[in-house]
């Protein structure tokens, strides 16, 4: 049964691993360049005392390439679900070849279990190898930027892509089993996977654990670099050591906890002062923002939780598929 599954799936598998091989060669080459450049930059700037700006330039130089590779890895599980998972069973149901196998000594459950096991492991291996190479290659850039909670980076590094790929594959297979037509199953897989890629980082992931609430005083230095509040690893445009995930922030508050955006003195500071005078003017008001954040120390907890969630969903879909093929499918 394993040999038959491989024979049926070998073309897709060879194409997938061929693409992974080419991508792996590129990632190894890029990774060696990044690591070498990082070591040279760090060695050079340490003696001159300007590491912050120099390392920032280094990260900017490679961030576009690593970002594109990260977005590509986000797509890979979806591609696996659409082109490997959805046709796996639906194609045989459309052609009627499943009846030939079921009339032999192979049971329906074993037939589906072997397909899910063999192709599912290959799917997870593809995503895992890609994630391993990308995590290694982009390591120095992510160290400098210190933003590993950023949604795209979080979902494309370390172990999360493994759970996501397993889920996407089983999702496609289950939809193909229930829909029984390849093209509609592929479309349904695309829609469900795309929705989850939006819902998980925005609605579910922030609440794996209760955020820690803290108050951040807005000093003149912080205000002078103020570009945005409430992003991944930044408060007020300044990088926060340790890279926590700032989930939510309030408006600017005074010492009594009241918003100051519409007060006369705030309007005077923002409208009548120059850019160099405004930070000192605002700092006199003892302003602060209340921040809800996920500490950087929770990164691996969140990685394991999200991987476990996707793996559990894949397991539930696999059980549902086994029930369907055993009791309701002719």
Structure commentary:
The chain has helices spanning 2-46, 51-95, 98-102, 108-137, 139-145, 151-155, 160-179, 182-204, 220-224, 264-272, 278-283, 299-327, and strands at 212-217, 234-235, 238-239, 245-249, 288-294. By secondary structure, the protein is mainly alpha-helical. The strands form 2 sheets. The protein has a 3-stranded antiparallel sheet, with no helix packed on it.
Set down the secondary structure blueprint.
Blueprint lengths: L1 H45 L4 H45 L2 H5 L5 H30 L1 H7 L5 H5 L4 H20 L2 H23 L7 E6 L2 H5 L9 E2 L2 E2 L5 E5 L14 H9 L5 H6 L4 E7 L4 H29 L3
Antiparallel strand pairs: 1-5, 2-3, 4-5
Give a short synopsis of this structure.
The protein contains twelve helices and five strands. Helix 2 (51-95) runs antiparallel to helix 4 (108-137) and helix 4 runs antiparallel to helix 12 (299-327). It has a three-stranded antiparallel beta sheet, with no helix packed on it.
What features would you highlight for this structure?
330 residues; mainly alpha; 3-stranded antiparallel beta sheet; two-stranded antiparallel sheet; 12 helices; 69% helix; 7% strand; elongated
Distance between the termini: 20 Å
- State the shape: elongated
Helix vs. strand class = mainly alpha
Q: Work out the radius of gyration.
A: 25 Å
Which range does the strand content fall in? Answer: 5-15%
Largest sheet: 3 strands, antiparallel
- Unreliable runs: 227-242
Q: Kindly state the mean pLDDT as a whole number?
A: 80
Strand order of the largest sheet: 1-5-4
| Secondary-structure element series | HHHHHHHHEHEEEHHEH
Helices, by number, come to 12
